[in-house]
Amino acid sequence: MSRSAMPNLVRLLGAFVAVAVGMGLISAGLLMPFAGASGSAARGTVGAFEDLDGEFTAISLAQQSKIYSADGKVLATPYDANRIIVPMSKISKNMINAQLAIEDSRFYEHGGIDLRGTSRAFFSNISSGATQGGSSITQQYVKIMLQEKAIREDDQEAAKEAVEQTYSRKLQEMKYALDVEKTHTKGQILNNYLNLVYYGDQAYGVEAAARHFFSTSARKLTVGEAATLAGVVQSPSRLNIRTNPKEVQERRDLVLDRMLSLGDITPGQHKKYTKQKVSDMLRIKESEGGTCTKAVDPYFCNYVMEYLKTMPELGPDPDARLQAVNTGGLKIKTTLRRDWQKKMHEDLTKKVPNGDPKVGAGAAMVEPGTGKVRAIAQTSRYKVGLDRATTTYSEQAWTYPTRYGGTNGFAIGSTAKMYVLAAALANGTPMNGTVDAPRAAPRQQHQFPRTVFDPQCTVGEPTWGVQNDFATGGVMTLRKATAQSINTAFAQLASDIGSCKIPGVMTKMGLMDGNGATYGLAQTSDGTKVKGDYAISNIVLGSDSTSPLQLASSYATLAADGMYCPPTPIESITKANGKQIKIKPPKCTRALETGVARGVTHLLRGTLEDQGGTAATQKLADGRVAAGKTGTTENHGESWFAGFTPQLATAVWVGTPLGDGKSMEMDNITIGGQYYPYVFGGTIAAPLWKQIMDDASAGMPKKSFPAPSDKVVAGDNVAIPSVIGKTPAEADSLLRGAGLVPRNAGTTTSTSPAGTVASTSPSGQAPRGGTVSYTVSNGIAPASPAQTPTQTQAAPPSTTTRVQAAPPAPTSTSTTTAPTRTKGPENPKTNGRPKSTGDKPKKKDR
Question: Would the pTM of this model clear 0.70, i.e. be above it?
Fold first, then answer.
């Protein structure tokens, strides 16, 4: 043996001798040789063992916690039926045998510490240096109880020490086990253990586990069911019966092997039950009355429960945190305004009734500057155990991301244009500046060459076809382009500033997809996201997906003068003894400069205020100032409005959540008794947003948005040097010298000499550090256009017109989708629930 292993061996021997002393074995002369081998180290450890606390005090198995709304109303009681205490007489002999077989087959033969098990672990650990194995049922009971007690007392250090793999902890556990064996019968110890231990999936104790996983009682558990439950105790998070049946089955078969070797089952029973698949055995019962099934709002309750599992203040890991909530008698005050949430639900279901055959709706409201989630609601009813979700019943929330049990979300349409504005203003584009929008008649596209966009933020095809909802184009102000949501204007703006500046702004403002991946990434044909490669349709026209909560939180950044605050549903947590747990609030970060946030806000006010604005008829009541943006997906599959006042930010979504990854068109459709030829963001989501915000804002003081700085209004512009007639190399040099970024946008027909610059975009001035695209002449003069009758350009239709009068044909943003990529896959997680329409990118219009 190496010298480096000797100190560990001495400690092992000392600990082992100390255990033997506690068991009264040294006096019997059974282990005297070990005492001599360990010398003074062993004698020191013996002394330390004798000095350890020897009196173990158990606590009651559970204290119910309560979840409250911000106004003090009880929302849920975790978990009113998740642990059901039963006596030994109501626990199947199969369960008792299975648990003892895999955890402590000599339980009735030892006095709290299994000498054989400890010896086996001791000799095994000599070579490995490990400090685990050999624990008896009594020791496990002590460990779990100590951890639970520490968590209730908010003693995180003690909770950690209760489960850490150290000899000092093991010795204390052993001494407590000896005391428990003196004060409890074997039946009491085993009964307490079976009622205390965690079997996963929020089921504590054998009775709750039997009901939850197999829809039976502990008394009626079969050999196979009992072996399955007994096997997961080792690691209930990893060995999750619901989500990891394959590994659970391997562990179950090990339990059955042990039961056979001990004579608890016959060879015939062993053969029968090892043939059963765990997945076929499951009869998961979801309606037994757990934490959230009886809650006032189950969707919000589920969100809170999942969020609590992420809070380090409640324990070292998700299982410990869940146990603290389940048994700690906590008073959990949430940020939810129950009155706002209730009214939000009423507003949604009035316009989009529950049970509509294909359309659902959801909304989320947050407080700018704090991230407090004030309300979330959706039109479906909560129901567990469904074979297939519908718009009437769904267990899955449509309003928050998969991390908390929600959805990947839905394509956000032109609400994504806000981020283009933010990137442009941050790049020095003046708020009162203009953009030269390529003209596109209805149902006709302008083809943007992929070369006019940054290589990592473009399209896979040679061109990207973009069209508008009505005939428009030419030089226009950013405010007009925003208010009327001109697609070609924003595509051009992305080209002008450098398209790869947009994803960074999105990330800083907290916009991610519902699976937690970076928003806007291109996808392969199988839906895999490509790290570091963005689809232009995603980042300009919102083809990627997110949830209402994530979008509302991101838009709240503007109302908070550029500070992004992650959403949180927790206001405070108070322990059973009345002491408040110190909670570290989510860290707010600077996403935008104050002036930029104010400039974008000013531009977004035009959506609600300007003539031709896509939501001009949806101003808030009593002249309250607000800003926001409509969003519609291709073929009118989703309708969005995201908007805010200085005090509240809300995102409203209306769409088709059950299309197996594809939006269903909301054309020629009647929703809530109202007929819609086409559903735009301004026709249904915006009116809902207005109603929800009016209800919540009533009684609040009216506040105005601060004015942006002169620098943001006028921009930080530099003159574009004249490069017409220059070679590309000369143009690049001149533009870089002026502090601009040149981009060769390809060739064009022109009377300029072949190989020289024919035009630039923009012209005259550009933001410092901005991109100037230029085209190179091919030396061929353009053909003279044929004479055509003079046409009058159509004025942009009003929101009301879009609702009531059908256009000649469906309009859309683009006939191109996010390009197929083949490199660097980044797989988004899914939650195994019904797919939402947001699973695949889609093309957008308004």
Answer: no
